[in-house]
Amino acid sequence: MFEFEVERTAGPARAGTLTLPHGRVPTPAFMPVGTHGVVRGLSPGDVRRTGAQIVLGNTYHLHLRPGEAVVRAMGGLHRFTTWDRPMLTDSGGFQVFSLEGLRKIEEEGVTFQSHVDGTTHALTPERAMEIQRDLGADVAMAFDHVVPGQTPHDLARDGMERTLRWLERCRSRHAELDGSGQAPQTMWPIIQGGTHDDLRLRSLEGTLEHGPWTGIAIGGLSVGEPKPVMHRVLELLEPGLPADIPRYLMGVGFPADLLEGIARGVDLFDCVAATRNGRHGTAWLPTGRINVRGAKLKGSTEPLDPECDCETCATYPRGYLRHLFVVEDTLGLRLVSIHNVRFLVRLGEQARSHILDGTFDAWRREWLSRVRDGTE
């Protein structure tokens, strides 16, 4: 139920298939983010029609609302959300460590104040596993200590070493919960270490020592560091990552970043940017991006993206989409979000096709050169 097959490579880039209890995921693939158990503004049917095969939920937010006990009583996250394809839950580490002034870090775990009502909660490696087991996604993520992108070496080292210590506790508790009678679930570790090469390599080494694993994640990137630094870290890690398991780059999901990650051996991505940009009227196109609110779209009968096969581009003209934003109707937010999610899902599909037919490198270079200065 937890298998990964690499079908073809193009340098580090890989085309594969990830098999999970709720279905198969052709890779490389983008995972829409359903932080609260919903991809913001979209129904599960909307998300299915984008071609997405796997979505992400978040432990921190679902623990606060509605609570993992409610989700478990309603049959788990799949039944709760009516999403019948694979799901992955982030451990909540990123959210907790983002609560500056509202959390206290200790070796046992993190104590934090809810951003919803100010109540105090504790999240430990063990609790993160228990919550994710109750949520019931196919893949649970280890609880990690995330540091900002420009963190000095000593602080990044502390976070990386704590992540390794917590990993063993996560693994132990997850294994203890295996016989709980709930749906099968696997757990993936997260490589940390900031932007420091020696720490990243030590994190990878220590993570593999705790294995074997059915997948592995790279965290702590796209958190403020320059893009070339992210690329360097991915290139550093790629040769040492196991070739027979999927590689997940956490929190990365702008179009160009997807292609740069795929070229460096990444199989899975997630990010809220597709729907966040959609809600603010920014749509992604093969030539860059476009402001749907812009005056030059007024009266336009052209589709948003003539190359796209999503509901939005197949049905609604640019002039109507602009009108929806001008009159502040929520349909506009939904339609542009649908397009952006489909754009990223389709980009993964296109990359996979080009890897399989041996044309990935040339296609990627042409695509990136076309979008670099293509904002409309």
Furnish the topology, listing elements before pairings.
Elements: E1 3-10, E2 13-20, E3 23-27, E4 29-32, H1 44-49, E5 55-58, H2 59-64, H3 68-73, H4 77-81, E6 87-90, H5 93-97, E7 103-105, E8 110-113, E9 120-123, H6 125-135, E10 139-141, H7 153-176, E11 186-188, E12 190-191, H8 197-209, E13 216-218, H9 227-237, E14 247-249, H10 255-263, E15 268-271, H11 273-279, E16 282-285, E17 288-291, H12 311-315, H13 318-326, H14 330-356, H15 360-371
Parallel strand pairs: 4-15, 5-6, 6-10, 10-11, 12-13, 13-14, 14-15
Antiparallel strand pairs: 1-2, 2-3, 7-8, 8-9, 16-17
Helix count, DSSP H or I runs of 4 or more residues:
15
Q: Give a short account of the largest sheet.
A: 5 strands, parallel
Gross morphology is globular
- Identify the strand order in the major beta sheet: 4-15-14-13-12
Question: What is the alpha-carbon Rg in Å?
Answer: 20 Å
Beta-strand level of the residues, as a percent range?
Answer: 15-25%
CATH topology of the largest domain: TIM Barrel
**Mean pLDDT level:** 96
Instruction: Enumerate the spans where pLDDT stays under 50 for 5 or more consecutive residues.
Output: none
Number-wise, the strands total: 17
Q: Which structural category do the helix and sheet elements fall into?
A: alpha/beta
CATH architecture of the largest domain: Alpha-Beta Barrel
User: What is the CATH C level class of the largest domain, in words?
Assistant: Alpha Beta
Oligomer: single chain
